[in-house]
Each structure stands twice: as structure tokens, then as C-alpha cells.
Model the fold of this input.
Amino acid sequence: MSARDGRKPDDRRGHGAMALESAWAEAEQFNQKVNQLYGEGKFDAAIPFAERALAIAEDAFGSHHPMVATGLNNLASLHEAKGDYVKAEPILQRALTIFEETLGPEDHNVATALNNLARVYHSKGDSSKSESLHRRALAIQERALGPDHVDVGESLNNLATICLAKKDHATAERYIQRALTIWEKALGPAHPYVALALRHLALVYKARGDYTEAEPLYQRVLSIEERVLGPHHPRLAGSLLGFATLRSQRGDHVAAEPLQQRALAIREKALGPDHPDVADALQQLARVYQALGQHAKAVDRLGRAVAIQNRNAAILLNTGSDEQKQAYMSTLRGSTDQAISSHVQAAPHAEEAKRLALGVILNRKGRVLDAMTDSFAALRHSLAPSDRGRLEELRSISAEYSALVYRKPARMTRGEYRARFLRLAAERHELEADISRRSAELRGDLRPLTIDEVRAAIPEGATLVEFFVYAPFDTDTWSYRVGEPRYVAYVLHRNGEIAWADLGPAAPIHAAVTRLRQALSRRAAGPGPVGARGTAREFLSHAEPFVDPRPAARDLDALVMQPIRRLLGSGRRILLSPDGFLNLVPFGVLVDEDGHYLVERYALTYLASGRDLLRLGTSVPSRQGPVVVAAPDYDTARGATPAGQAGTRRQRSADARGMRFSPLHFAANEGRTISTKLPGSRYLTGALATTDAVKALAGPRVLHIATHGFFLPDLPALHMSPSSDLDPLPKLAIMENALLRSGIALAGANRGHDEEGDGLLTALEVSQLDLVGTKLVVLSACMTGVGKVRIGDGVYGLRRAMVMAGAETQVMSLWSVDDAATRELMEAYYDRLLAGCGRSEAMRLGQLEMLDRPDRAHPYYWASFIVSGSDAPLAE
Done:
């Protein structure tokens, strides 16, 4: 834990050599006490001594001295051991900076701080960053201390932990064996460090199924730790849990239970009731009870674990960037899957198991989106100029970052390009983390919510359907069947019991989704299909006839909607919260047992999670009138010289790799018509429909954008530019940040990256628009509702970006739409919207009108657009 700085103080600050020597000795005495208590697992008792040592060092040597960094390192290590990663991270970052600037980047104290900071990142789920820091620490220690130093063994052991988490067992074993050799030689065979290496080696053997080799290792580990650390040390609890898991994997759950109970008792006493390690012990004990058939006990222990994790998540989601929040929530995936498995597989008739499963979904599904949305909203509402200034900085950096992803400026060398790109990426992460921290001070913790709170927010006559993909837990192999996910659906009414249905394996559902999406967009070689009497309405054949989507639509309905149809009751207003690939399905096009499209029977509204209903229940006044952006001049922006003639495609999409966008004549008519329908609206078209104009908006009541959209799905084959000078960094950025994969084209988009801007507005930039108070955003373009699907966290693309920007309702498309048909649908939508229909019902009626027309009856024309968010009437 402790950094060790042997440099003696000097008297350059005028205190005198004796005073400084005395302060140094006193601080060292406190630091030694900290190390003693840390080794004993008495973290709370050690914190006052660490704080005292730090105060002495700062008073004697100033705020930027190695002795201060040592004190910071020790204090942070205690917070990390207590599971308080929010406190530990900034303290360690400060310690690392001081060590690097005062002792140089190759000092062994730098390596100590790096290892400690890496452990914090690992606990928060950021394994990539953690591994990078551990590798840097190892390299420093090997150069500064030699390859056989005890501290080198610690770095090797840390890297082995990362490899174990990645299931790279061969590499983990090499690191562990080397650490074990170093520690046994330097410290002897009975040292706690040796026991730690042996425990990790046992984990490798367990993962391989070599239980015979693992068991004696655990017995040796427990013997060493009991004798040297004592029977109540938290490290012993970890070894007990590992040994208990081995027992369970061998089928001896009865022998596992007392080991689990003892480990839990040790952790609760040593670490406190809310520590993440206590939740881990409870979660493992719940598995044992489930295997023993003691389901009530299993649900109770797992419920306690989930409550601890949710409270800690509420704190940790107030920190970090979007990506860091995602990484942390991924660490909770195991308990989420376990909660659903405990209900669906083990106790399908138990009310408490059902409530636990749905409660976990409501508190975790889409939680990162909630946290980011709340962070931006809190700062937009802040009156402090510094808070608003940080948002503007983030907006500016995101714009430049997005532009560099797609086109390298001609006058920039490859080296300059790489340097700027990496700098902007780092600055964006730092700004997002700072915004999260600032907003936390304004809004408070993101507390967990209850099922009853969500139930109370369901509108009268509406029904909430929560779909979820989970990995079932297999008590025979004692592992999650991650490669065999399943779907479950929970149905919640404003009144009545929670209903649910097990929808079965995900693979056939995903295959059915793929077949349906292909049928909805693919042309057929033969004549167009004809509907049967009394079934989904007929549509005419064309010169390029379509594939009949109804068989595929019926197949998918049979898998996901038919099992819950009776649970919906008589209501016709359905609030859908899809998961996985169901996010890419327009449910209105599914065909029921009677041959009817669901749009004929239900008004469907999409939500990221049922938790959205609480946020949508609070309406914020608009600050501007409606704004319509339509038919940008892709070759010109603000009077710039045209870049050349575009193509003639009439779908509202373009392949962003080629970056050529054709004029959309029907979009111009659509924009003019809708602008006249919306009183007091502002109309931006041609060269005036720029990215700057859209970014300058501040809470317009309605924002309608009719233009080209783009989405990049096939990243491995991506080629952004024919220039051989293009760096591979943009491809990596797009793979890592899905908000860069989609966007819309505005004025000047065909000009490329020049002094007039690039004319592209990525989803990353859209997420930072100020749309708080905007009642409705309509993206009348292709594929604006698609993006990268993340299980449990929705679609990363324009749909997510508009929510983060603050829009109440988003209307978006799921495939490439027809220009003329889209204009007709949008005009019909606004007619009904302005007549007082709800935002979803207005879309449904417009779609039904097209369905009645033989030349528009194919779902390709009317089914692409979905309504997400509030379904209330537009009138305020």
C-alpha cells in the first residue's frame, strides 16, 4: 500500500533543519501506524492516523512534496479498501502528480501510486485503464528495483487479477508463478503475499476445472492467513469464499454454506454493512441457498446484496465519463442476471423473487443514460457561469473531435492529426467526468427507486412492458450461461399484480428480428404479395416489388408478444421498454394470431426503461418557438462556393463512408408545409440549415429536421477517406464510442472539413444540444433510431443522444425511408398532433391512413418511424 520516500527534508522553506526533521519523523511514525492497521484490516481505525500524517506533512513541507504524496497515497488506499472509490480516485491522482513532478516519472513511488490507482479503476469496471497503469508500474519497478524485488511481485499479481477477469488463464498463471517465486524467495513460504499468489493460482485451476489441484492450494492459503493474519481478517474472507465456491462447483453445497457464512460475518464486521465486498459475499451465499432449494433465503440474501450495490451505484454514477459509467454498471451484470434467474428459473411463483427481479431491471436498465441526462440537465439549469462554461467547452471539443473522426484537414500532418485527436479524446473524458461531479453537487445522489414509484407514474389506461435479456445461472456448472442468453418480459399496470412471461432463448428471437428487418427493406424479384381476406391489409406490387414481411412479422410476434398478450388486459396504450435487438423492431408491424398488424390495435410508445416515466412526469417549459430544419444545401453552407453536383438518390440516408449527400426535394416541401402548420415557427433550409444554427437552439417547443441520416454498422471494413494519410485512430474511436457512428447531414456536408465546418452533426454532438423544454423532436431521416445495441442500456445513437439533450419525445426511423412517403406521413402526423392527439396516437393514426392506401400499404412506407418518450398530447 504505502509509498516509501527516503529523501531527507531540507530547510529551503525556512523552518529550520531540526523542525523539518521532527515533522518528518512524526509523519513517518503515523504512516507506520497506518501500514500496521492496514495490514491488520482495520481500515476505519487507520484513517485518523493517515489524515494526521498528511496534515503534518502539508504543514511542514507544503502541498507539493513527496512526503505529502506518501500521505495522500496511504489515505487513498484506505478509502479504496473501504470501497469508497469516489474519495480514493482524486486523492490518488493528486499523489501520482506530486510523485511524478518531484521525483520523476521513473521513481518507484510513482509505480506504487499507479498500482493503487489501477486497483480503483479495476473496481469501477475500467479494466483497460487498470491494465495500462499496472503495466506501466511493472516496467518502472523492474527498471528501478530489479526484476526480483517484492514490489515487482505485487505488480505481477495485480496483472494476473486483470487476466483472470478477462479469462486469460494462461497469461494469469505465468504472472502468478513468477510473483510466487519472487515472494517465496524474499519473504518465505508462510507470508500473506505468498498466500495471495496461491489463492490466485487456485482460481486458475478452478477455472480450468482442475478441482483436485485447486483444493490443497486453498487449504494452504487458509492455513497461512489464519495463522499470520488472524481469524477475522478481510483477506481471509476472500479465501473462504473461493474455497466455498470450489465446494459448490464439486456439488457439495452443504459444506460450502458455513464457509460462506463465516466469510460474510468477517466482511460485515471488518468492512461495514455497505461495502461492495459484503454485497459480493451475500450474492455468493444466495447462490448456495438457491442450489440447496432454500429459495426464500436466496432471495433475501440476494436482495440485500442488490440493495448495497444500488446504493453504491447511486454514488459512483455521479462521477466519471459516459464510458466510465458504462464500465461500472457492467460490474453489476452478474447480480442482475442472478436476480432474474432466481425468479424465472428457481422460484417462478414466489412474489418476493418476482419483485426483486423487476426492481433490479427498473433500477439498472438504462441507468447510465439517466445519469448522463441528469448531469447535463443539472448544469444547464445552473446559474453559475463556470458550470455553463464547462458545457460549452464540452460542446466545442466534441464538435472538433467528431469532425476529425470523419475527415483529416488537408493542411494537417499525420503526426499533428494524431496528437490533436488524442488530446481531444482525453479532454472530452475529463470534461464529462467534471460535469458529472459538478452536477452531483446540484442534484444530489441518484437514489434507487421502487416498483411502486414506477407504477404510480404509469398513465391511466396504459401498461408498461419491460423486456430484458439475461444470462441464466447454471447451478450444475456454477456459472452464468453467457453464451445462451434468454428474454423475459415483465408487465406492470397502474393497479394489480406484476405479470411476467419467460420468452425463451434469445437466439431464435434475434434471428426473427433479422428476418423481419430484411423483409421490411428488401426488394423482391417476383410479383408483390397479396393479403388474405380479413388479415393485414393488401398492398400493390410495383416495378420493384417488395418482399412480403408478414410471415416474418408473425414469427416474431409469436415469440415476443403472443406470450404476453393476455397479460396486457383490455388496455390499448402500451409503453414498451425493449432490450437487446428488440430495440430495432417497430412493434406496430408485428402480426397477431388474427392476421392484424399490432398498430391496428395498440398505440405503442417506446421507453429506455420504465424509470423514464418519473422523469417524463415533470414537464419543463419551452424557451423558444418551434424550429423546422429541412432540405439543407449539402454543397453550400452560409454562402460558400458549391462543392459540386450531388447524386440523385431519394432515400433519406447516405453511406457516411463516401460522404456524398443528394438533394431531397420532398423534404423541402415537407419542411415548408410543417412550418406553416406550426404557429410562430422558424424555418431553416438550404445554406441556412447549418450545424451552428442547430447548436444555437435553446429549448424550442418542437424541433423537426428533414434531411439525410447516416449510420455506420460495419466497422472492420470502414474506410473513411481514400487518402492514404488517414490514421486508423478514427476507426478505433468509432468502435469505442457508438455516438460517433450515427448522425445527420446539414448544410455544407459535401464540402468536407474546411473553414466552414464539416456539415455533419454526430450523435455525440447532438447529446450536448440544449433541448431541455423541447416537447418533441422529429428526425425525419433514415435510420435515426438505430445504433449500437447494448444489452440493458438501450441503443447508442441519435435516439440516446436526443434524450441526453433533454427532449421529452423523439420520433425516429429504424431503416432507410422513402422521401415522398415520409413527407406524407409527417404531414398527417402533425395534422393529428395539432388536433389534440397524443404524440404516439397521432403517429398511429397517420400510419393507419397510409395502410389504407394500396400504394402505401407495405410497412416499408409507414412502419419505420417510432415514438419514444412521452406520449402525451403536445398542448402545454
In short: The radius of gyration is 30 Å. The first strand starts at residue 462 and ends at 470. DSSP finds 33 helices and 18 strands in the chain.
